[in-house]
Design goal:
Distance between the termini of chain A: 73 Å
Radius of gyration of chain B: 25 Å
Mean pLDDT of chain B: 85
Number of helices of chain B: 13
Strand content of chain B: under 5%
Largest sheet of chain B: 2 strands, antiparallel
Number of strands of chain B: 2
Radius of gyration of chain A: 28 Å
Oligomer: heterodimer
Mean pLDDT of chain A: 86
Structural class of chain B: mainly alpha
Largest interface: A-B, 60 and 54 residues
Largest sheet of chain A: 5 strands, mixed
Distance between the termini of chain B: 6 Å
Strand content of chain A: 15-25%
Strand order of the largest sheet of chain A: 16-15-17-13-18
Chain lengths: 590, 342
Amino acid sequence: MDSKASYWDRLTGSRVTRRRALQMAGVAGASAGAIAVVGCSSGSSSNKTPSASGSPAAGATAAKPVPGGTLHGTVSLVLGMDPMKASTFLTHALASYSYSRLMRFKTQLGELSQDQWYVAEPEVAAKVENPDPLTYVFTLRPDVKFHNVPPVNGRKVGAKDVVYSFERYRSVSPNKGNLAFVDSVTASADDTQVTFKLKEPFGLFLNRIASFQDLWIMPREFIEQSEDAANKSMLGSGPFLFDKYEPNVVMAWKKNPDYFEKDAAGNALPYLDAVNLAIITDQNQVLSQFAAGALDTISLPPKLVESFKGQNASAVIDQSPRNIMSMMIFEPASYTSAKPPFNDERVRQGISRAIDRDGLLGLVSKAGGVWPNMPINGGFGKSWWLDPKGSDIGAAGANYQYSVAEAKKLFAAAGVTEINVPMHFSSTVYTTIVPYYDIVRQALPAMLKDAGVTVKEVPEEYGTYIGTTFLGKFDGCAFSLESVFSDIAAYWQNMFNAPDQGGGRNHSSVADQTLRDNIKKMVQSQSVDDIKKQNFELQKYVSSKMYYVPVITPVEYGARTPKLQGVVNSTGPTTYALGTESSLHLNFKA
Amino acid sequence: MRQYIFRRLVLAVPTLIGVSILIFSLLHVLPGDLVQQLAGDNQVTPEFRAKTEHDLGIDGPKFPLSVSGSAPFVQIHKDNQYTHWLKGVMTLDFGLSLRDRTPIAHRLRDTLPVTMEMALLALIISLLIAVPVGIISAMRQDTIIDYVARSISIGFLAVPTFWLGTMIIVYSSLWFSAATPVPQQYAQIWDDPYANLKYLLFPFGGFVPVGPSVLLGVSLSGTVMRLMRTQMLEVLRQDYVRTAWAKGLRERTVVINHCVKNALIPVVTVVGLQVPILVGGSVIVESIYAVPGMGQWFFQSIGFRDYTAVQAIAFISALAVVASNLIVDVTYAYLDPRIRYG
């Protein structure tokens, strides 16, 4: 070895004792801590003030639309492409890009006022006649064509296609109970009219036909190509032509150049040239892509809104009440065999009064939200949802007011000194799709504890949850979400009727015959105004019974690039019919 | 050697059959019903269940044998789901996904190379980091270099991969408004090698190595580096190494020709054991970086009770582990001439 070793050889070759190493580590650690403290304080003082953002007031008109451009969005999962065989809203939401319905929910260029939410308007139908309560005759538009793709090659959509679609729906759809009251569907000889005959009157029939879960119009020759044709591709008469689907990569569509609809100025709809949905499951990845400009629109978890505003000052943030009901449900034995404690409505009312809904809304997001009624939540708008905080609800409104003392009084009046039960919940999927679910689920036990209710949390993986607890196979109570429907009648029937009478969501086997009779009376009324009145009365009734205890309806947020305009503010139908209600009027500013 | 490899391949068959029985059994005792999942929130009517089970091919007996409490106590089912599936596997026909009815083989063709490439790159990166650093650390024992290297390796071990990946994604968008490529920008290595390597190694461009393979490789390197260092220290104290020094050989010659090969033998064992860790770790990294690989698909399939997909992926993973361990054993013979397989 060279005796005159270089400086670096001496430095790297010299032994460092353990004491010396620890000393050096301590100095390094203290320096890093000092830098962190300085960095944080200088960082916070330089945070940008969030820009003023939010949806324009209802009724405001959009800027002049500009045709062209590709919408880059994201979806977390694609669970099959056949909207008739699928049961998930994810599939139904995507179906409206390529498929049409006889009716759809109102959409327009410009904002919708609340009383325009969930209003059915014709899509493929040109007009609807209702000669008697059991008959609806739809006259089809003559200019609606299927996509110009083999094997349909752009042929006209006729009444026979509607009949075929209905027959298929009845044969394969897990949702077919939604149209079980339809007796027959027939096509006229000239193929321009389709007649629905009902077994019993149903006042919200047009809303039911507009539902994104049910009657999509599909061509026979496409479906019959192979058993899984509709699961591998999409071919309908919707505003977008299916382009490609690569699992866990992308789902994409191109504009349908032959789409029948035009805007008021005569421009062809849709305005967009293409839609490209990247399949990304990680929320951080989604936010990162948006910040980098790779995505034009994303949904935003409430908790991230403030930090998002600080980092994306130019982004526009839209908000609207979420349309997924969160609720506490009780074991079926409470109603089927009067098992205490939840068999007593005072106990259920006490549970409701022990929940600080405003506190939960504040926990979820600064913008808060509204209190849902049972079973109608704020996402339906004030035409259908009876605000528990308002005066119209009457005495039943007291059951929503937070008061631990009153909750305890109610428990005492019911002769219940201690409540100690399991609380089941879904530990996966819900937590991804509905971010507020987990926040509320974690807060509930402490809230209930204050009122003397001890719940033991029982997490269940989604597959287990949906196969057991959601179907009523549970003990104690559960914190749950409700499926989304397009009309209020579906909620009433599903949640309170018997299973063989359409009660597919009667999680707790509630069997209130008075309630069922009134629901039947309501849905058979032919006057929408009368249905609304009866709907409010029923909400008052179940608010006193508290068969299910509704929790919160927080605000839902979406973020978009400021270039994107034409966003409709209602998140009810537009969340679940992305192609038509949501995307038909989307366009990019010049 | 050929005989040994052949014997190992033959012995792998009962291992894989045992793994397949275990996977199949565990899947089918999971609570949660696939038919109910397909029905979503709707009540499952008996006719819907019967039709769906028949369409999916899950309406028959599950296993070749069933045991009951009454006579006949043991029943043999020639036509059963397990045998049907196993026959398909022999011909590389893994059936259709129960969830979306797409051929599993097609999805495997698209996703398996992605995950395997990511894992292989991760392994190479971990070795490229760990072996030289372990050697230098041992050669410069108790110097600043040694302490720094050991501290870094502990850091790599202690910091969770998913946290580090999330921080990279979050801070890149926060500070630089940069994002990793989206899944449709992924290209197979034979289609566009540059885009492919960029996606897995330098997703932000500029040869900044923060990609998913780098993340996985770095997290693995801690263990290997520590082991390499320990083995090198042991080998350096051997008499033959002292003889080599005494003969006046250069440091590089002593280390590379006399020490490294012997020190690598236990390291190779550990590297082989890291293959299952890579397969498992790929689920999280693929999700964070939006890599269209097998890991994400596996995780989703378990949640949706897509039995055929889960069985296929688990089987392929087991195959990969068996193959990697065979490669490890063969590598021993190369590293140590005393080890001979007859």
